[in-house]
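Below: protein 1.
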Amino acid sequence: MPYIYETHMHTCQASACGASTGAEQARFYREQGYTGIIITDHFTGGNTAVPVDLPWNERIDRFCSGYEDALAEGQRIGLDVFFGWEQNYDGDEYLIYGPDKAWLKAHPDIEHWNRRRQLEEVHRAGGAVIQAHPFRDRDYIKYILLGRKYCDGIEVANMGNHPYCDACATQYAREYGFLTTAGSDNHNWRNVNPAKLMGVALEERLTSVMDYAKLILSRGPIRPVIPEGWLDVDPEQAPRLLTYWIDEDDPDMRRIPTNRDFMPGR
């Protein structure tokens, strides 16, 4: 029997768009039979609930409060709870697994890092980076930016996406050989249909979030958990998504059109 983990979720303590506490989220996932969860609240570049005018250490204490709330409840009810975060740049977002609270406090310049520096420093700490929902199609996202040079894998299915976005992500992963994950992006357990929950299935139970980072870096056995039929999309009914490569090495051309349509079957 595989061990099922949620890899992408938020709390109201640290994500401004969150509506559930860490403890509430932990209880919900325990009821759904998950082995564990990874709290990935929005960090400084995203929709954070942490005031930016506080001293750095206090900002990190507040940022970790949702995770710590979930951890305490998880220990009480028998659910594994691990720490991560989600960083936003220009609508493209990345899930960070591995480094901990002390590491964040020791790196107050992190909110000024570009994508390349983020990947380098997270790797130096033994962690891993996954691009979250790379083909998300929303009014507030100006461009679909693909950061293939700045991640260790991609999230191919996300409960907050339309299935056509995930069909494109799946095709993109196939063509470029990415390691793949899935996550629910759960902000509020009350609004979640349990049948649509996502995550990853692992062969061994995690003892720490570093175990998960090592699996990603080694391309170990990680099976995305995706609801049956989620990726069954009629390509003729799906919009054509304009996509761009990100290249931070070229300051004059950071967004390069891919000139590709990643929708399978079209």
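Below: protein 2.
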Amino acid sequence: MAGPLHRGRAGRKAGFVKSGNAHAQRTGWKQIGDAMPEVGKYQELKIARKTDFGFYLTDGKGEVLLPKRYAPENAAIGDRLKVFVYMDSEDRPVATTEEVPLTLGGFAALKVREVTKIGAFLDWGLPKDLFLPYAEMTEHPKAGDTILVRLYQDKSGRLSASMKGLYDLLSTRSPYQRNDDVKGRIYEFGHDFGVFVAVDDRYSAMLPRHEKTDAMRIGQLVSCRVANVKEDGKLDLTMRDRPEVQREVDEEALLSLIEEYGGVLPFTEKATPDVIQRETGLSKAAFKRAIGGLYKKRLITLEDGKIRKA
């Protein structure tokens, strides 16, 4: 980190000069070169000096302002503080002792404060909301939604949020096993595969496309069951009950459907998965289990490629 915010001769030597441009009129100084405090990260810095509006912290190379409202009581020159550095509303680097939910390269679930013509603004606990550009959205959230985002620096060096690139950041080392009940947040719609879910806002998971996901929205919390744990640790989820419970539900629903068809279902388990899904709302495997259960109970017959109510 470099680029002290000194005033006067020392500041000019350190890389700051008086400037007449708009930025300088706000900050009093213009930085020369590309040296900047390291934003988006926690750092342990030493209190170098005190002013009426806070403290200047240093890493031995440069300084950054810690506003008075963030300073601990009895803070003194020479103390070392763990701080997070970000850009304020005037694009000046400042430090805070407040906890933030994510750092550069990390991700977290944040609440959308508002959506404007240029993008969305997210609450991350700092005076300046975190900007989410439209170009970094996978879906358009609404004010009040809580969505999963990662933190990155844009081409101008500003900290911004993105809904993209989350898949590779999620952990595949979950503590969950098959049939465990879990809760997760929808972070992306992969229409050819299903719905991508972050279990506990942390673990990689997916709801397959044959689940009833049409009415779901980005950021929605869903209660699911772990259907399978893949070899790479990713979780396959289902919103259906455990097989022994769900089979009874599916049998009743299927029997009602057969009655709606006048007692004859014009296809069997040999139909394509898409046809079965469209007509019954069941996966092919669930459909076959329900048919088998009804047949064993002698509630249906299987003849001539049709399923009839007995």
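The first strand starts at residue 16 and ends at 17.
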